[in-house]
Amino acid sequence: MSNNAKSAQYSTLSRSLAVGDDEPDRNLALELVRVTEAAAIAGGHWVGYGDKLKADGAAVDAMRSLLSTVHFNGVVVIGEGEKDEAPMLYNGERVGDGSGPECDVAVDPIDGTRLTALGINNAIAVLAVAERGTMFDPSAVFYMEKLVTGPEAADMVDLRLPVKQNLHLIAKAKGKSVNQVTVMILDRDRHRPLVDEIRAAGARTKFIMDGDVAGAIAAAREGTDVDALMGIGGTPEGIVAACAIKSLGGVIQGRLWPTSDEEKQKAIDAGHDLDRVMSTSDLVTSDNCYFAATGITDGDLVRGVRYNKGKVLTQSIVMRSKSGTIRVVDGEHQAHKWESYARLK
Prior knowledge:
Elements: H1 3-16, H2 28-44, H3 52-67, E1 73-78, E2 94-95, E3 102-111, H4 113-118, E4 124-131, E5 143-149, H5 163-174, E6 182-186, H6 192-200, E7 204-208, H7 212-220, E8 228-234, H8 235-248, E9 251-256, H9 261-269, H10 280-283, E10 290-295, E11 306-308, E12 311-320, E13 325-334
Helix pairs in contact: 2-3, 7-8
């Protein structure tokens, strides 16, 4: 059988495995890994060079190029910004080959551009996909207050409770003392009162400079030594993390956090209740969503891009909520075939 015939046969088989023409099928997960691998390899060439704009630009170009080959009809609902601000992967941009199911797409070619530029841990390339119209619209308020923890305490915690009470509930659910609980938190001045509360409760803190998507997943995933993520971070990142947590079985709770009276009024005009605590299924209503991430620098979630005798080595994680499947994918790539994505000229 010729290679072309084999390719056609495989394509027919793949599409026959689809759940339906109007929803994403299981093969989409591995297609998405190819996309985040491309973005990570392109961004990885700029690790430690101090130029986050070049790193982000290379990753955006690579992600967009590979997205055009994915079998879906996607619309970017969380992207690099509005069309006049972002020439590529802007909010509302159509992506994919147009022949598959309609999907919401959330992209972050580099979650942690500053981490990449400085060569600091936890920079990743991220992509999340869900059925069309199922992702929360984050455009009204950029920040939200978040609480993330794993499956053991998912039904016990409540963002409205005092920090100390939530920490004791997490400790009890995990069968450990509160002084063994570790809380991940973005290193920001606004979090000083929260840090004081966490430490007063007897728990430990683990600071991250940026990248609370990886932090949120670490808080929900076993074996990371992180028990919770708390604090104020980006609303778009919360929605992306929710796609992963759908597979992990933990919980993310969020409450919109306007930074100005103008933003507060914008949220009210959009019909948002600023006192409402949203949970995982409020942020992403679909039970058939996907999350893929590839490491750019080493981190709590995956290893970063590595180089070895003309090869580029990557590590990715991909999840599908419908099956609860989580895969860690190690990739080996020929370096010279990826140079065009890295903007090395």
